[in-house]
Amino acid sequence: MDRDEENYYGKHGEPRKFDPKFRGPIHNRRCTDIICCVIFIVVILGYIALGVVAWVHGDPRKVIYPTDSYGQFCGQKNTLNKNKTILFYFNILKCASPVVLINLQCPTTQLCVSKCPDRFATYIDVQASYRYRPDQWNYFRQFCKPGFNNPRKSVAQVLRDEDCPSMIIPSRPFLKRCFPDFSTKNGVLTVANQTTFKDGRGKTRNVTDLREAANGINNVLDARSVGMKIFEDYAISWYWILIGLFIAMMLSLLFLVLLRFTAGVLFWIFIFGVIGIIGYGIWHCYWEYDHLKGIPGSDLTVYDIGFQTDFKVYLQLRQTWLAFMIILCGVEVIIILMLIFLRNRIRIAIALLKEGSRAIGYIMSTLFYPIVTFLLIAICISYWAVTAVFLATSGEPVYKVMANQTLCKYANLTCDPETFNTTNVTKLCPGAQCTFAFYGGESLYHKYIFIFQLANAFVFLWLVNFAIALGQCTLAGAFASYYWAYRKPADIPLWPLFSSFGRAIRYHTGSLAFGALILAVVQLIRVILEYLDHKLKGTQNSFTRFLLCCLKCCFWCLEKFLKFINRNAYIMIAIYGKNFCTSAKEAFFLLMRNVVRVAVLDKVTDFLLFLGKILVAGGVGVLAFFFFTRRIPVFAQEVPMLNYYWVPLLTVIIGSYLVAHGFFSVYAMCVDTLFLCFCEDLERNDGSTAKPYFMSASLHRILGKKKLSPKKA
Asked: What transmembrane ranges does the database entry give (predicted)?
């Protein structure tokens, strides 16, 4: 008997303290990690309070509607801008790209207008002709500041005070903002079929001066057009997409059922296939090595020819093929030796996979539990997003001095628009204006907005990890009930999934919250590191870049390790009902005593489940491709007319993969739970009548134990 199979004794040789009457998940439990449970409940209540406060102070219209230079919403009811729903920029040449226009403040006056300009015009031309062409002035002044109606004011003063734009350009509304109406004619960029325009300052400009903005805008507009077509495709093909996802669900179920019979076959076919491919590689390397014998220059060494950018040069050397052959021989020998020495553990892993398929067959309700986890996570994401938006829009309008002169010492300083004209700023910085900059504030609440956003993100991560932990603990409890049933399926308790869910919520909320808290802290640190890396990307030196890279790598590894520990700790919590730290410690040492089995089982499970996901997604994807491209004659008339057939096709493929991942995640949890129970069974029992094994007969035969004691009715 192997040491890791019957390690019944503790660290100092004393017998481990087991309950001889243990028969699976303990039902007589106590609440664990009560302090963390209380803290978790208080945090949730505080999170709700934060959402309420954000809802009271926030205004999502600040995100939805554009804001003019006076901090007023365009299109806001019961205001002067009620019928002015579009934002107009006095000089769009000052704005680099649409991204700047949407997310930042462009250094030019912005007004709410009812419609965008539909013609070229300059203030100079309109002023010169307003006496005999008043209609032109009446049209132009709707793009001037409200109340301005003084065409006699000198052009220099108007442009200095930005009472009116120096020019208007044919534009069209997009994202409720006026963008130049760009188009191409014979490959030439134009605006209203013109390639030049007057800028209103005595210069004739080429449309290419707006190339940077034009390219960005056209890309966004093209994306909008494509987006509308994609929406139309979804609208007429959603029914067939659902059918494809249903087929994926049935194939996933079928694959899990067939694993009971084909897990070993699939694995050994893959292994012997790899051995055969490597064997062919060895033969091919020898053939190339022998074929180059006697060819001039083939006996040179890699050192002789030095570094070459053309890899084909090395393939003309016998030494290269000899090295390849030696490497492949080494890999082949390692694989064969691993199969020889690990054959028993591989058989155990395959048997556990088959046992997992059998367990899911008895507790089919577990396959649909991921829907509960998905709904909980969706609620968390929705609440976090809404709270983040309300927090981001909680500020009051903040105005700053916008100066045309770069040396103005008052530039970017806060100002009051009501008293700005009475200050000396306009005299010292001609043309300076007090315009709306962003939303903020000086109150205690506004000063801590960033802290509230961090708290919002942290609690969101905590809740998401808790939802995942609840799902893992619930599934573990259900599958542990199956393993520790002496007579399967007769001794499996009624409604094991619902019973396990109730135990997890009633007794172990604190333990699950504790594990989720540790993981959330690490994830928040990773988010902060990514944020710092993004912010310092342009200014950091080599040492800072290296340090950030090391920290990001370390915390990534730490997160992966904690997820592994938490997952197995939740299994032990589901079985024994102990607190998080004790469960994590016992799970870790139990796995370390069976570390080789852990590695083998993990890789075998990963391979088979990945193969299943590829088979499901690939099979449904091929079927969807033939269907949406009308290559199935029987259904050719049923296929809807699509703009892009790849839209429903990709949706079906990705959706099928996610459906398979959801089902197989349950299967992976089942195998992990059965493995821990199996290890506990080996250490706890010896197969005697007093301490019989709870493992299946197939596992018992693989271990070569003495005959199972008869199971009493």
From this structure: 31-56, 238-258, 265-283, 321-342, 362-386, 459-486, 507-529, 607-628, 649-669
Query: Which H or E run contains 265?
Result: helix 211-291
Phi, psi of 583 (to 5 degrees): -65, -40
- Residues 559-606 pLDDT 10s: 999 999 999 999 999 988 889 999 999 989 988 888 887 887 777 777
Q: Greatest CA span in the chain, whole angstroms?
A: 113
- CB-based contact 74:65 (threshold 8 Å): yes
CA angle 626–262–668, rounded 5-degree value: 85
**Residues contacting residue 599 through CB under 8 Å, at least 6 positions apart:** none
Q: Which helix (H) or strand (E) holds 155?
A: helix 155-161
Mean pLDDT of 39-58: 91
526, 559 contact by CB (below 8 A)? yes
Candidates 645, 611, 597; CA nearest to 7 is 597
Cα–Cα dist 114/143, whole Å: 10
DSSP-derived 3-state class of residue 320: helix
Spatial CB neighbours of 625, under 8 Å, sequence gap ≥ 6: 631, 649
Distance CA 180, CA 182 (A): 6
- Identify the burial level of 412 via C-beta atoms within 10 angstroms of its C-beta, where 0-12 means exposed, 13-18 middle and 19 or more buried: exposed
Q: Residues near 630 by Cβ (< 8 Å), separated by ≥ 6? A: 636, 639
Peptide bond before residue 165 is cis, with ω within 30 degrees of 0: no
CA distance 320 to 311: 11
Query: Using an 8 Å Cβ cutoff, are 666 and 659 in contact?
Result: no
Q: Name the residue among 262, 237, 116, 126 with its Cα closest to residue 175.
A: 116
Mean pLDDT of the chain: 79
Q: How far apart are CA 444 and CA 449, in angstroms?
A: 9
Q: How many CB atoms lie within 10 A of CB 327?
A: 13
Q: Where are the domains of the chain?
A: 86-202, 396-440
The letter for the amino acid at 518 is I
